[in-house]
Amino acid sequence: MRYLRLTIAALLCMSLASGGANAQSADSSESSEYLIKAGFIYNFAQLVQWPPAAFVQPDSPIVIGILGVDPFGELIDRVVQNKKLDGRSLIVKRLKRGASLKECSILFVSSSEAAHLEEVLQSTKGLPILTIGEIPGFAVRGGIINLTLEGNRVRFEVNIEAAKQANLNISSRLLALARIVPQSADGKRSE
Amino acid sequence: MLPIRKQNHGSPTVGRRFLSLTVVGLLLGTGASAQSPQGVPDISHMSIEELMNVEVTSVAKRPQRLADAAAAIFVITQEDIRRSGAASIPEALQMVPGLEVVRIDENKWAIGSRGFNGRFDNKLLVLIDGRSVYTPLFSGVYWNVQDVMLEDVDRIEVIRGPGATLWGANAVDGVINIITKPAQATQGGLVTAEGGTEERTAESVRYGGKLGNSAFYRIYSKYFEWEPSIDATGKAAHDGWNAVRAGFRVDTKSSGPNALTVQGDLYDSDYKETLTIPSLNPPYSSMFANDGDYAGGNLLGRWNHSFSRSSTTLQVYFDRTNVLDNSLFTDHESVYDIDFQHDIHVGESQELVWGMGYRSIQDSNGSSFTVSLQPNHSSLNQFSSFLQDEVSFFDRRLRVTLGSKFEHNDFTGFEFQPNVRVLANIGKNQSVWAATSRAVRTPALTEEGLRLNEAVVPPGAPPFFSPLPVVEAIFGSTQFKSEDLLAYEFGYRVQVAKSVSLDIATFYNNYSNLRSAEPGQPFVEGSPAPTDVVYPFVASNKMGGGTYGVEPFVEWKVLPKWRLLGSYSYLQMDIAKNKNSLDPTADNPDGQSPKHQFFVQSSIDLPKHFEQDLSLRYVDSLPSLNIPSYYSLDFHLGWRPGTHWEFSLVGHDLLNSRHLEFIPEFINTTPTEVQRTVSGRIAWKF
Question: Is the ipTM value over 0.90, yes or no?
C-alpha cells in the first residue's frame, strides 16, 4: 500500500505541474507518404525546444524551410495552417539552394540536395535549426533527424550530437521512438 | 460437460498477418475520422506514436486506421508493453478489454476471449508473425512456450469475436496476432537483466546488424527462471520453471517491389507441477511432484511482391513442438504450412483479397494410464481458401466487406465461414460498425481419439458399489462434429472531445453443437481377469446457447503528459445442454468466466526522463470454480536517462499478498497462488 500512496502523490503532483490538453483524431481517406511525413514534422516542432535566442520575439513564427525540390506540395501547408505552438504560428517557406537559411527554425532538406549535403549542413552549423532529411546517412553526416521508411511505415533517426551543437533540446518522448545514430567522426557517411 | 474443456486442433491458415494490413495499427483511442474541409485528413492531430503506426500504403496511398475497422480490435503497442512492466505475453494481454487472462500456476495460463476460458480453451487463435501456434492436439495454445523478445514486439493486435473469414477455423471468439519488428528496426545491441522477489530472474541479449547492402538481421537469446510460487496453504509449491530461447530474423531492405523475411526460433523449457492422477491400485489416486519439458523450434519464410495495384504474399513455415510430460503424455508435433495471398485494388473503391493455403500436421504421441490417444501417429491435411471484398461508397464514408473462408479438414470435411461487415462514418467524429459472421471450431485430435481417465472410484465405494474399481473416463469420438458460432456484433466509436475518445463493442454469439460429454455404455476391461469397470463419457455435440456482452473502452488525454485508459467488460453466458443430452455435469460453463471485469490505467511522463504507470484491474468471481473476485494493482516506474540505459521498477499485484485465479479443467494440476512481486530491470542499448 505504500507504493499506492507514493504513486498517487506523484500523480497529483504531475497533474498540477503540466497544462493543456492534446487533440487526438485522424483520418483514413486519401493520404500519402508525404502527408504522414508532414505530420511527423509538425510533431517534431512540438517535441523540440529551441533556445529563446532562436526567435526575435516571443510570438515570432516557427519557419519551416523546404530546401530543394518540394515533395510535399500543399500538404504541409494544410497540416500547419492555423496551428500555434506556444503562441507561435507556423509558416512554410520554399527555398532554393544558396538562399539564406538563418530565419528557419526547421529545415527540410529535400532528396534533391543529396549531392550538396555537406554544403547545406555546413551552412546551418551552430544555428538553432532543426535539420530534417530523407537521405540515407543524413543524420550520420550531421543532420539532426532523418526520416526513413521501414516496410511501409515512417521511422526516423536522430543524431543527438548534432542536436546539441544546434542548441536544441529534443524531448525524451521523441528520442524513445527514434533510432539513435552516432555522428561519424570524419563527417562522411559511415553507415 | 465434464469439468474440463478439451480441445481440438486447428486449421487456421493464410497470411493472416494481412489483417495487419487491413487493420493496421493505430491505437484504438484515436476516435473517428476528422477531415479538413479540403478533404485532407487532419493528420496534425495525430501524435507521433500514432503516425508511426500508420502504414504508407503505397498502392492505395491510404493508411488504414484501427478506428476504421469493422471489428472489435485492440492494439497493444511496444510502448504499452514497456510501460505495463509485463514480463510475458500473457501479462501484456491482461490490459485488453474482453479477454480473460488468468494464471493457473507459474507455468500455466488460461486465456480466453468472450467466455469459455480454460487451460484448454479452443476458441482463440494465436499467431506469432503469421505462424499459427494453435496445437492440433487440443485446439488450444501452449502458452508456456509462446514467447518472444518482448522488446522486439512491434504490436499485438487482439480481435475479439470471429475472425474466421480471414484466419480460418478456430478463430471463433478471438484472434491474437503478435507481430515483431522487422530487423531494420532492431539494429544495434540490447542487453537486459531483471530480478525480483519470488526469485524471478531473466536475461536477454539481442544484436542487429546489416548483411551486405541489401538486408538486415537480428539474433537474440533469452533465459529466465521463475522459482516456485505458493500453494493454498502458503507453502512453497512445486511449480517453478525456466526457459531458454534463441532466434533470428532477416529482412531484406524494403525498397523495391520485393521483400523477403526469414525468421526462426529454438526453445527449451523445463517446468514443474503438482499432479493428481488416478490409479487402479489403492489408494486409487496419487498426488505427486511432476517434471516435464517442452522444446521445439520453427522456421518461417515470407516473400512479398508489390505491383502497382496489387500485392502478393507467399509464406511457408515449419513448426515443431515436443511435449514431454513424463508422467502423463508425450507428444511430437510437426506442422508444415504454405499460404498464398493476393490483394488487389479494383478501381477507386474496391479492395479484393483472396488466398489459399495448405497445412500438413504430423503428430505422434506416447500414452500413460491417465491419458492416451489413438492412433499414436496421425497425419492431417487441411486445405483452405478465402475471398474477401471491401467496397466503399460515398467517399469512403460507408464501407462494406463481404467474404468467406472455404476449408477442408480430415475430421469434418468441408467448412464454410462467411461474414459481412459494414462500417459507416457519421460526421467527423463518429463511426458505427456492424458484423455478422459464422465461424466453426473444428475437432481436435483428442476429441476424436482421446481416452482420459479422470478418476477411479474404489471397489465398493458409492455411487457404484462395484466389486471392481470403476474408472470414469472421457473418450473422444469419430462422430464429434465442429462447434458452430453465429455471431452478431455492433460497435460505436466517438471522439467525445479533443482529448477523449470512446469505443464500445457489443456482441451476441449464438453457439450450437458445443461439446458435451455423454455417458456411454459401461464396460469391463482387463484380460484375462477383469481389472476394472469403465464408465465412459463420450465427446458429443449436445450443448448450445447464447452469450452476449458489452466492452466499452475510454482513452482520455487529461494532459499532454498524462493519459488515462479505462475499460469494462460485461459477459453473460446462457449455455445449456440440449434436451437430448444426458451429460451429468454442470449445465453451463458460465461460472468459469468472469461476468464483470474492468481495467484502469494512468500513464504519466515525469520530468527528468522518468515515467510512471499505475493500473488497477478487477476480475469478477468465478462461481463454478469457487474463485472469489479480486483487484490487481500494478505499478511501473521507468527512468531513461539518455539513450543507452533504461531502468525500471515494477510491482505486480500489490494489493494482495497472494490469491488464486483459476482451477484448471481435465488434467488435475494443482493450481497455485499468484503472489505480490516487485522486480527491477536494467536495459542497455548500444
Answer: no
pLDDT exceeds 90 at position A75: no
Range of the domain at A105: 32-180
Does some domain include residue A54? yes
User: What's the pLDDT at A152?
Assistant: 66
B197 interfaces chain A, CB cutoff of 8 Å: no
Which residues of chain B neighbour A24 with C-beta distances below 8 Å?
Answer: 29-31, 45-47, 50, 495, 498-499, 501, 555, 557
- The residue among A92, A141, A135 whose CA lies nearest residue A113 is A135
Q: What is the pLDDT of residues B465-487, one digit of tens each?
A: 999 999 999 999 999 999 999 99
Q: In what order do the strands lie in the sheet with B72-77?
A: B72-77, B153-160, B174-180, B124-128, B131-132
**24-53 in chain A: CB under 8 A from chain B:** 24-33, 35-36, 38-40, 42-44, 47
pTM of the model: 0.74
CB atoms within 10 A of CB B624: 16
Given an 8 Å threshold on Cβ–Cβ distance, is B31 in contact with A24? yes
CATH number of B17-685: 2.40.170.20
So where are chain B's domains?
17-685
Q: What is the largest CA-CA distance in chain B?
A: 88
Residue from B325, B426, B449, B423 nearest B8 by CA: B449
* Domain CATH number, residue A156: 3.40.50.2300
Residue A19 lies in a domain: no
Mean pLDDT value across residues A69-95: 86
Using an 8 Å Cβ cutoff, are A136 and A115 in contact?
no
Render pLDDT for B400-423 as a digit per residue (tens, 0 to 9).
999 999 999 999 999 999 999 999
Do B499 and A21 count as a contact with CB atoms less than 8 A apart?
Answer: yes
Give residue-wise pLDDT tens across range B239-276. 999 999 999 999 987 556 788 999 999 999 999 999 99
Cis preceding-peptide flag for B278 (omega within 30 of 0)? no
DSSP A26: B
Q: Which of B42, B44, B649 to mutate to test the interface with A (most CBs of A within 10 A)?
A: B44
Q: How many CB atoms lie under 10 A from the CB of residue B561? A: 21
Residue A10 inside a domain? The answer is no
For residue A187, being part of any structural domain is answered with no
More confident residue, A152 or B362: B362
Total domains, chain A: 1
Residue type, B30: T
Model confidence at A93, pLDDT cuts 50, 70, 90, reads: very high
